[in-house]
Amino acid sequence: MEWDWEFVWQIMPTMIQGVKITILATILGSALAVVVGLAIALLRRSPSRLVSGTTGLIAEFIRGTPLLVQLYFIFYVLPDIGILLPPLVAGVIGLGLHYGTYTAEVYRAGIDNVPRGQWEAAKACNLSANQTWTRIILPQAIPPMIPALANYFIAMFKETPLLSAITVLELMNQAKSVANTYYRYIEPITLVGAFFLVISLISVIALRWLEHRYGRIER
Amino acid sequence: MTDWSGYLSLILQGAVVTVQLTVMGSILALLMAFIAGLGRIAPFAVLRWLATAYIEFFRGTSIFVQLFFAYFVLPFAGFTLTPLQAGVLALGLNVGAYAAEVVRGAILSVGKEQYEACIALNLSRWQCMRRVILPQALLVMLPTFGNNAIELLKATSVVSLISLADMTFQANIVRSQTGNTLIPFATILALYFFFAMIIAFAMRALERRMARGLDGVRA
């Protein structure tokens, strides 16, 4: 079977549709991961053993199990207890939770990297815990973590094809349906690979720029 | 009331396939990691270029796309692979690309004085690598290799989508036959986590074992 450019152009609009959903899922998933990661990182620092221990265990569990199974869990099990989610929402929640446990580690490293003196200064200035976090610690901790966070978002982008398993019509699913309709696999699957490679390479260049701009964080 | 013992044995059969994939994939990944990792620091530009191309390609495209490519597209090019072969190939090559960067980083992290000592002792390049550099570099690689192995274990769930009867695949069968979603998915989540813990534990034990006798060397 040979490569057919005409077929490529014929299926291109469908593939572009898929790319849009893939990018949308990545952006929403990243936004959720940023929030979830911060929440986990803060809860893990809670003075209560019970809170920090439980959070740690849950995060460890989510990180130790496959995203695909978690997606199935969200998509198939939650409706049994009355939570019916559209596929894309279920997918974004899965991506956000899974990568939230990874970004939590980035936050942890970033927060640990803020020198002790800053905490002491905040205390000496009689700032409340809330003020210390929002005015002193996080503004210093977050910029150096941006490249590391971006790294995980690129990884997340590469895992979005898993959403096809819960019927989200993203790039991979569009390619599969095209392939099944015309029984031609070479062009659709290769195009998916090409799209991923191109977007990943662009993201890597953007990542280099971020590293240059914000510096690298030592982990 | 459903008879769960039959379904449980189905899931355990899947677990065997998951373990097989993880072990064989890890072996291939380890092999590729050393070939490509050493290739990246080889004195010949062609080797460096080839290794870089391999690493960037497999890290840039998603594991999912690579698996589909191996299973659906390669047959058109004349290579027909069984699902298991396609799974091991895609997993091994993908994780190998990530681990190659670990190998390169660990070897470069060994101090310059160690190389100078090799020259002073008139060791050949091979002897220097085998006797001096690698024993120290391996210890640096091990924790990250452990993480990579867990990533590989998690990635094996993806092979269920090319109809290989691994744990995730079997859980889906149980779901469609019993209509129960919680029990199959909760069971395999627990099993995946259990396997991940075993890998983490084994890696820590191995690290302690290999650190023996290197106390004076490590900073």
TrEMBL record, chain A:
GO terms for cellular component: ATP-binding cassette (ABC) transporter complex. It is found in: Cell inner membrane; Cell membrane. Residues 19-207 form the ABC transmembrane type-1 domain. Keywords: Amino-acid transport, Cell membrane, Membrane, Transmembrane, Transmembrane helix, Transport. Pfam families: BPD_transp_1 (PF00528). The chain crosses the membrane at residues 20-43, 81-99, 189-210. Its main location: membrane. PROSITE patterns: ABC_TM1. It is a multi-pass membrane protein. One of its GO terms (molecular function) is transmembrane transporter activity. One of its GO terms (biological process) is amino acid transport. NCBIfam families: ectoine_ehuD (TIGR03003), HEQRo_perm_3TM (TIGR01726). Belongs to the binding-protein-dependent transport system permease family. HisMQ subfamily. This is Polar amino acid transport system permease protein. It comes from Neomesorhizobium albiziae. The lineage of its organism: Bacteria, Pseudomonadati, Pseudomonadota, Alphaproteobacteria, Hyphomicrobiales.
UniProtKB/TrEMBL annotation, chain B:
One of its GO terms (cellular component) is ATP-binding cassette (ABC) transporter complex. The chain crosses the membrane at residues 63-82, 182-202. Its main location: membrane. It comes from Neomesorhizobium albiziae. Gene3D superfamilies: MetI-like. InterPro entries: AA_ABC_transptr_permease_3TM, ArtM/GltK/GlnP/TcyL/YhdX-like, Ectoine_EhuC, MetI-like, MetI-like_sf. One of its GO terms (biological process) is amino acid transport. This is Polar amino acid transport system permease protein. The keyword Transferase does not apply. It is a multi-pass membrane protein. The keyword Transmembrane helix applies.
